[in-house]
């Protein structure tokens, strides 16, 4: 039988370092807590770790003055939100769930002895308008008159996962770098907004199947040669597209540029190699960098940490 936590039951709270506040359920329920950090007024970062000792139902009753955009990255495990109005949201490892709400009346469900780790951004209307001057786009995201509304559910992109890992690493440091934390939070937000359809309702020309096939081929080429840099002109020539059509086609079909995808592929391969114990210089050459210092700088920009930190200083 599930244990139920009512919305009016007090959660223990304690202040952590660098402005974090931990909200914790009673210890007898298991390790269940959420750490909260205010990034700016109307903008928060949350880290959740739940591992209940029995099936857990946590009631949610929120009524806000202004709507909020919620972006949740599932890192491990799975949980669900079931709204009283019939809305259901899933939060699953390797997936990102984007929703908005003005009121949140429902239940969060966690399974017995299953570890759930999530990172969540909560962005209020005022802050969102600051980043989205287009009033139509903001209204399209925050139109939540029916309660909780799901806007997207998709696999987490490598770029977002990199920012999430960087945030977790920063949080584990004795003296986290506040600037780096803010950079990765804003990068996560920007990446998600880039994938949401915020345009006016107008016709978008569809790609011809022939061009779509060529774009898919270009992506496969980048994935096959992710250890070597491939210029736009070479990639376009290899698949029989003009450079401009290749760039615009990637933005339309994959929501990113060819260079951005190539960087993600190289950095993912680099991380995997570093985890096996390879030297930084070896990995740099393996993913197409002539100079290890250039690789280290690119890796640090992408992940927010130095390559040698992936598996300790002995590298």
Automatic annotation (TrEMBL):
> Which GO MF terms does the UniProt record name?
DNA-binding transcription factor activity; sequence-specific DNA binding
Its keywords, alphabetically, are: Transcription, Transcription regulation
PROSITE patterns per record = HTH_ARAC_FAMILY_2
Against InterPro entries, the record matches this protein to: Homeodomain-like_sf, HTH_AraC, PchR_regulatory_protein
Superkingdom, taxonomy of origin: Bacteria
Residue ranges of domain HTH araC/xylS-type in the record: 216-313
Gene3D superfamilies per the UniProt record, alphabetical: Homeodomain-like (1.10.10.60)
Q: PANTHER family, from UniProt?
A: REGULATORY PROTEIN PCHR
Q: What is this protein called?
A: AraC family transcriptional regulator
Q: Which organism is it from?
A: Microvirgula aerodenitrificans
């Amino acid at each position: 039988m599930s244990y139920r936590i009512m919305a009016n039951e007090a959660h223990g709270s304690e202040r952590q370092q660098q402005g974090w506040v931990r909200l914790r359920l009673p210890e007898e329920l298991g390790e269940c807590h959420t750490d909260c950090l205010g990034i700016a007024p109307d903008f928060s970062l949350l880290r959740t770790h739940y591992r209940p000792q029995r099936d857990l139902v946590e009631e949610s009753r929120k009524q806000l003055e202004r709507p909020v955009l919620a972006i949740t990255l599932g890192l491990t495990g799975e949980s669900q939100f079931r709204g009283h109005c019939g809305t259901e949201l899933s939060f699953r490892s390797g997936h990102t769930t984007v929703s908005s709400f003005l009121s949140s009346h429902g239940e969060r469900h966690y399974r017995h002895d299953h570890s759930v780790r999530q990172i969540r951004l909560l962005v209020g209307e005022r802050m969102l308008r600051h980043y989205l001057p287009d009033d139509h786009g903001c209204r399209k995201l925050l139109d939540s008159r029916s309660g909780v509304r799901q806007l997207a559910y998709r696999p987490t992109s490598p770029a977002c996962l990199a920012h999430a890992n960087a945030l977790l690493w920063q949080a584990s440091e004795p003296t986290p770098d506040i600037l780096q934390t803010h950079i990765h939070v804003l990068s996560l937000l920007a990446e998600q907004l880039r994938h949401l359809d915020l345009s006016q309702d107008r016709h978008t020309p569809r790609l011809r199947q022939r061009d779509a096939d060529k774009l898919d081929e270009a992506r496969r080429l980048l994935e096959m040669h992710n250890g070597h840099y491939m210029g736009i002109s070479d990639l376009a020539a290899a698949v029989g597209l003009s450079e401009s059509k290749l760039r615009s086609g990637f933005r339309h079909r994959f929501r990113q540029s060819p260079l951005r995808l190539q960087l993600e592929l190289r950095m993912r391969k680099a991380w995997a190699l570093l985890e096996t114990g390879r030297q930084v210089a070896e990995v740099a050459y393996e993913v197409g960098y002539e100079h290890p210092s250039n690789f280290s700088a690119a890796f640090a920009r992408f992940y927010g940490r130095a390559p040698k930190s992936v598996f300790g200083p002995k590298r």
